[in-house]
Specification:
The complex is a heterodimer of chains A (about 70) and B (about 450).
Chain A: H1 13-29, H2 36-55
Helix pairs in contact in A: 1-2
Chain B: H1 9-12, H2 16-37, H3 39-48, H4 69-78, E1 95-98, E2 109-112, H5 114-130, E3 138-141, H6 152-161, E4 164-167, H7 173-182, E5 187-190, H8 192-205, E6 216-219, H9 228-238, E7 241-248, E8 253-257, E9 265-268, E10 273-278, E11 291-298, E12 306-318, E13 331-333, E14 338-339, E15 344-346, E16 349-351, H10 353-360, E17 366-376, E18 379-388, H11 394-411, E19 418-421, E20 437-439
Parallel strand pairs in B: 3-4, 3-5, 5-6, 6-7, 17-20, 18-19
Antiparallel strand pairs in B: 1-2, 7-8, 8-9, 9-13, 10-11, 11-12, 12-13, 12-14, 15-16, 17-18
The chains are: A mainly alpha (about 70), B alpha/beta (about 450).
Chain lengths: ~70, ~450
């Protein structure tokens, strides 16, 4: 299914991949069975991807409920 | 322009309509977030009869009440220590910073989550990349790394970009000069005042900075980074290009930066901020080319939503087309011009510290200066106290003082400035925000 960015433009293949990774990282971060080392790494990854999808106008949301 | 010129080619080159559409999309989400989570905004929205669903265009932003520093401070008093703006408490945060306290008032206390902190570094990346900093650079950060947020975001932005980063905290000025030379710094970050201080110290040590490896200075923390005479002096002493930036603790990072084209102004990072310019008295918007007060809405820091914050910064906005870099971001001509309350009224004449500095910096033998306002009876006095270079003889000083006084009078409707020579080391030196205007009159401006 084609996706669009916050401007209504179709996303590129690279943007789709970024969004997919971002969503998977968020899902991982939402789990309650992660070791502290895994959770810390997932948090850094999620925050890094948040900046990318936010910069590219793909998503704009808060992560406070995920601890970020 | 090549895409390599931009940190984020996609949004830095958007047209004005697309930028506005992006800002509106983000604004709606920010207002929903504030309405759902921030006790301060829940109350202020209710009192203003505002609901986020009323946001149909960017013009609807004006339905929101503006936020003042005094309101923020009152909120901190109402619910210490962070006030009612934050959507969560300290347990959700990884950083706690405060304003610099240079005004002598109680500082604003701010929190940041992991996401917010990473976003702050991201904003610096826009500016650093835009001014030409690249991963091959070595950066020296001449900053004290304390509770003032200052260059913290720059430090992490440099790391994120892959720049070799040298934290210059806990050093004397001499130690910093020696380190930045020893480590082969190609980029130095400091306040404009401190860049001059470092250059003076280098000269004392016999270090020729202009012949060294520093190619770029990243300036922040004071309006002086865009005062042409100060900037020219810094660039000459360092043999490097100086790029102005400006930020504030209330948003945590920079919101404007000078690009490598150096168009005489600073670009607003408009995909992450909405910047309004209003008449300081009435709050009505002013147009391009008119000076007014900055009002900022930030999309970045989630733990403290910031909507229509009155900054008291004086700016003049000009269109993006003023610069040929290809960005769609508008600019502030001359960066931050000062504070709306900076202006001093002396015997009926307006005196702006920025204008005084512009004149003083045309005299390279001035090592430090202070503008001192006093009152004797009903008579206001204005004195420029100057620390001149040690090699300036008494005769040379007399000549220099006369020329300074004339230049200042010519620029101020004939107002007489008393130009006095201070002893070496008598005037304060500044690493962060310089406070060179001292007003000892006991009556407010115009009194």
């Amino acid at each position: 299914m084609p996706t669009t960015d916050l401007l209504g433009r179709p996303t590129t293949e690279a943007e789709d991949e970024l969004l997919e990774l971002y969503r998977r990282c968020k899902a991982l971060l939402a789990r309650d069975d992660l070791a502290p080392c895994a959770r810390a790494g997932a948090l850094v990854a999620t925050v890094g991807l948040w900046n990318a999808v936010n910069d590219l106008a793909l998503e704009h949301e808060q992560l406070l409920d995920l601890g970020a | 322009m090549g895409a390599g010129e931009y940190w984020n080619p996609k949004t830095e080159t958007l047209g004005r309509e697309e930028l506005a559409a992006l800002q509106l999309a983000k604004l709606r989400r920010l207002c929903d977030w504030a309405a759902a989570r921030s006790p301060f905004y829940q109350r202020s929205f209710r009192e203003a009869g505002f609901d986020p669903s009323q946001l149909r265009s960017l013009d609807d932003l004006r339905r929101l009440p503006m936020l003042t520093r005094d309101e923020w401070m009152a909120s901190q008093g109402e619910r210490p220590p962070f006030g009612l703006l934050p959507v969560a408490g300290r347990e959700a945060a990884i950083r706690w910073h405060t304003t610099s306290g240079t005004t002598g008032r109680e500082p604003i206390r701010v929190l940041d989550t992991a996401k917010d902190w990473a976003w702050q570094a991201e904003m610096w990346c826009y500016g650093l990349w835009g001014f030409g900093v690249r991963p091959a650079d070595t950066a020296y950060v001449a900053f004290g790394y304390g509770s003032f947020i200052g260059f913290w975001g720059l430090h992490y932005g440099m790391e994120k970009m892959g720049v070799l980063n040298v934290p210059g905290g806990a050093q004397t000025t001499e130690g910093r000069v020696r380190q930045l030379v020893d480590f082969g710094a190609t980029v130095v970050a400091s306040t404009p005042t401190y860049a001059l201080r470092l250059a003076q110290e280098a000269e004392r040590l016999g270090v020729d900075l202009a012949a060294g490896g520093v190619k770029r200075l990243i300036l922040s923390g004071e309006p002086a980074g865009s005062i042409p005479q100060t900037k020219a002096l810094i660039e000459r002493l360092w043999g490097a290009r100086a790029g102005d930036t400006a930020g504030m603790t209330e948003i945590g990072t920079i919101m404007i930066f000078e690009c490598s084209h150096q168009p005489g102004g600073t670009h607003i990072i408009e995909d992450h901020f909405i910047e309004e310019v209003v008449d300081p008295a009435g709050g009505e918007p002013v147009g391009y080319g008119e000076a007014g007060e900055r009002v900022v809405t930030s999309f970045g820091r989630g733990i403290i939503p910031l909507l229509r914050y009155r900054t008291a910064d004086l700016v003049t906005r000009v269109p993006a087309s003023r610069c040929d870099c290809g960005r769609g971001f508008d600019l502030y001509e001359g960066g931050i011009l000062g504070r709306v309350d900076d202006m001093k009224l002396v015997r009926g004449t307006n005196v702006y510290p920025r204008a005084v500095e512009g004149i003083v910096r045309e005299f390279p033998a001035v090592e430090e200066f202070q503008l001192l306002l006093t009152r004797e009876g009903h008579f206001d006095r204005i004195a420029l106290r100057v620390e001149a270079a040690p090699e300036v003889t008494d005769q040379a000083w007399t000549d220099m003082a006369e020329r300074l006084a004339k230049a200042l009078a010519d620029a101020h409707e004939g107002l007489r400035f008393e130009v006095e020579r201070a002893q070496a080391g008598e005037l304060p030196r500044f690493e962060l925000k310089a406070r060179r205007t001292v007003d000892r009159r006991d009556t407010p401006i115009g009194g």
